[in-house]
Amino acid sequence: MGRNSVKKLKKPPRHSALAAVVHIENEDDLFDLIERTENPLLLVLEGVQDPHNLGACLRTASGAGVTAVLAPVKGACGITPTVRDISCGGADEVPFLKVKNIGMLLRKFHDEGIQIIGTSDRGGGNLYKMNFKPPTALVLGSEGWGLRKVTGDLCDHLVSIPMAGKVDCLNVSVSAGVCLYEAVRQRL
Question: 3-state DSSP call for residue 170?
Fold first, then answer.
């Protein structure tokens, strides 16, 4: 078969043209969604500012079947064209909500019986020994300072990802992927 006989494939449609599967506009919508979900898995991103990181987190959240991704109104990236592009459809599939107060949201999760697992280098727990089978909110900090102490204090568990090399931490979107897929593995 010669080079000229190879057909050029059409580009697939851009994911950003997809309509959102579930749209949430406020915390009432979020808690309605949680109530309708058999075993919610939530991703809370405390201050992720880089649109590439948010896009990658949304892409992974989509693949992992996350119920919703949440971020603070102040000091965090929202859905932008770059986020949509990087997410490869995740920004249009996974419900995303910016909330005024992450601390109050975590307290409400406690009231709903959702365990809260934060990632932190201060974490004494090993990610791979944590039980992700019950309803869970996974909380990751920002690119620069990680999880704030006040937020970590609201978590039921603080875990760290075991690191074997000289690098002492992972990028927030990589950490989200590692943690979310540990939850997926356990929930299979």
Answer: coil
pLDDT at 135 > cutoff 80: yes
**Residue 76 to residue 147: CA distance in whole angstroms:** 13
Identity of the amino acid at 36: R
Where does the chain have alpha helices with state H? 27-36, 51-64, 81-87, 90-93, 102-111, 149-152, 172-187
Burial, 48: exposed, middle or buried (Cβ in 10 Å; 0-12, 13-18, 19+)?
buried
Amino acid letter, residue 19 = A
pLDDT band for 22, please (50, 70, 90 cuts): confident
**Residue 19, φ and ψ in degrees, nearest 5:** -85, 150
pLDDT in tens, 60-73: 999 999 999 999 99
In the chain, the domains with their CATH numbers are: 21-187 (3.40.1280.10)
Is residue 119 classed as helix, strand or coil in its secondary structure? strand
> 179 or 7: whose pLDDT is higher?
179
Task: List Cβ neighbours of 99 (8 Å cut-off, separation of 6 or more).
Answer: 27, 70, 71, 72, 73, 105
User: Token digits for 115?
Assistant: 């365990």
Compute the average pLDDT of residues 23-38. 95
Q: Are 175 and 119 in contact (CB under 8 A)?
A: yes
